[in-house]
Design brief:
This protein is of the alpha+beta class. The protein has one domain. About 45% of the residues lie in helices and about 15% in strands. It has seven helices and seven strands. It has a six-stranded antiparallel β-barrel. A hairpin with a 5-residue loop joins strand 1 and strand 2. Helix 1 packs parallel to helix 5 and helix 5 packs antiparallel against helix 6. The longest helix is centred in the N-terminal third of the chain and has 32 residues. The radius of gyration is 26 Å and the shape is elongated.
């Protein structure tokens, strides 16, 4: 007896436009068995989450670039040497030219917030199907309504949707942390005589947010050098590994 097939994450299934019945041809001699319950959602529901995560990553990329540039400019020789002379009293945001870039990145983030909340709040109702783990055949009968026209439709497992939802939520949380750090850099000002402490606090917040960004797959090549007190070069931030949920297997009707 052949080993059971792996459960597919995405399938293209002939689906009736009237009653919603769907099927994939069976390839088992004498009938399928054993069959297992497989809950499916529209493939577009998964795609929307993947697109939401990608948009969030692009916004996060802009925010991370602002923080990296701020760290590179804010790290003065005096800051690297605990016993060195005090740093000059400067408005680091204005002096480094990051105010405008930070403002634009924050504005983009804040404009997208309502849409990201809606995208994560939407939860589809899964369709229950029965799938053969030997041949990949699938059935989801439904009462006929007199219109029996079957067309190929993209479906994804409920598990795939849950993975995409988790990935989108995690990406958006990292984006929020990056935005919080940029907002602190943009809107806070030091008390007289505490410019150096203020700058260090902002750097700590920026490093923390960039560590989250790096752990989520975003590249932060200058972060380690800055943390070690080495000379920092400016780097443009590029996206890391693609969303795992995007690598979903697509199986066509009748394919074993």
């Amino acid at each position: 007896m052949s080993a059971p097939m792996a459960v597919p994450k995405r399938l293209t299934i002939a689906t009736c436009i009237g009653c919603g019945a769907m099927s994939l041809p069976s390839g088992c001699p004498g009938g399928c068995g054993p069959e297992r319950k497989l809950e499916l959602v529209a493939g577009t529901d998964v795609d929307l989450l993947l697109e939401s995560a990608e948009r969030s990553r692009r916004r996060g990329q802009r925010l991370a670039a602002v923080l990296q540039s701020f760290l590179a400019d804010a790290l003065t020789p005096a800051d690297r040497s605990p016993g060195g002379p005090a740093a000059p009293d400067v408005d680091t945001g204005a002096a480094t030219g990051e105010l405008e870039r930070g403002h634009d990145a924050l504005r983009t983030h804040e404009r997208a917030l309502p849409a990201t909340v809606r995208e994560l709040a939407a939860a589809p109702d899964p369709v229950v199907t029965w799938w053969c783990e030997r041949c990949g055949g699938l059935e989801a009968p439904a009462p006929c309504v007199g219109v029996c026209i079957r067309q190929p439709a993209e479906w994804a497992t409920l598990e795939a949707w849950q993975e995409a939802h988790t990935a989108a939520a995690d990406t958006q949380e990292v984006e929020r942390q990056l935005a919080r750090a940029v907002r602190a850099m943009q809107l806070t000002r030091p008390r007289p005589g505490r410019e150096r402490q203020h700058r260090r606090a902002l750097r700590t917040t920026a490093r923390r947010a960039l560590r989250l960004w790096e752990a989520a797959g975003g590249e932060a090549p200058s972060l380690r050098a800055l943390a070690e007190g080495a000379s920092a070069d400016r780097h443009s931030t590029t996206m890391g590994a693609a969303n795992r949920a995007a690598r979903l297997e697509v199986i066509s009707p009748g394919k074993d």
